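Case study.
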Amino acid sequence: MKCEDAKMLIGLPDADPRAVAMRDHLRACAACRADVDHQNNIRALLALKRYEQPPSGFSERCAANIRRELEQQAATEGAGWRLWSEHFGRAFQPLRLAAAAVLLIGLGFYGLRPATELAAPVGAPASWAQIRTESASASAPLVVATDNLPLLMAASNSGSLRMDYGPGATVPVNFEY
Amino acid sequence: MEAVAPQKTPDDERDLIRRAQRGDLSAYEELVQRHHPRIYNLLYHMTSHREDAQDLAQDVFLKAHAALRRFHGHSSFYTWIYRIAVNHALNFREKRRHDQAALRLDDMDQGVERDPTFVELRSRESPFRDVTIGELQKKLNVALQKLSENHRAAVVLHDIQGLQHHEIARITKTSEGTVRSRLFYARQQLQKELAEFAP
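After joint prediction, the assembly is written out as follows.
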């Protein structure tokens, strides 16, 4: 083993296989033995610094400070949310109520709509008397229109029980004619 | 102070960590009390400044609390918190690299007077014979502050804190060979600085 290698192995645990080779080298090399002695002297000197300790009771005070700091952080985070709710929440209160009302109306309308529309052919308005039939062939779709109803209505007479009310609106209907 | 570091996280400490991770501040306070003296000692020797060490120790524990959920127990708790402390101290030192005025040299605990090494050194025919504890502390601190950050971290963790090579390697994210090499060169430099006390 070379001196440079041995120096890098100072402090190796005895169980390490390289420790045997290093001890053999130290027995034969006075310069490396001197290096090890110097290193050990410095270690012993530095070990005296282990006596540096925080002042009595300081760790307990520090732990309590840290706990207070963490509690404050938690309270600040909680307070931030409460502050937002109190100020902005109050400012947005009418808007929130309006949004809730619109949502309720929308849901109500959606829930009631099929029943209302299913009832339409049964209770036909007077204007139905003015319905014009433009095509009545068996294969072509039946197209109906009214003079005073703004909706374009189209229905198939090929077995489909659905009626289209303008763009996008499709509801099931019952044709008995 | 007994410098031999515990090898594993004890069971009761694991329980404290679990409770602290769930937000139990009393459990975390207990963890802080257990580890504070060693972390303070480490930071003091990294900075040679008592007030800085106190402030840094508090920062380290607050930082550790913020990161506590990411501690999965793959390493021991003290290794984990040491890593945070060493990184924090290195960052702090980097910011204050040129601020030598920050050095504050304090007295050692009086327990050193009963240490066999100290007694033996005082009995020698050397300048050490007449040195006071305060002077010795000053010499050691000045010599330590002349080391590079990595070299100082290695000697503080090994020769003062009593950690083993593999633990230091994990904390400083280097190999054990690098740790041994840093220790060798750091002590060689210290030996030049402290030749009168450690011939």
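Observations recorded in class. Residues 43 and 53 of chain B are 5 Å apart (CA to CA). The longest helix of chain B spans residues 25-47. We will return to this complex in the next lecture.
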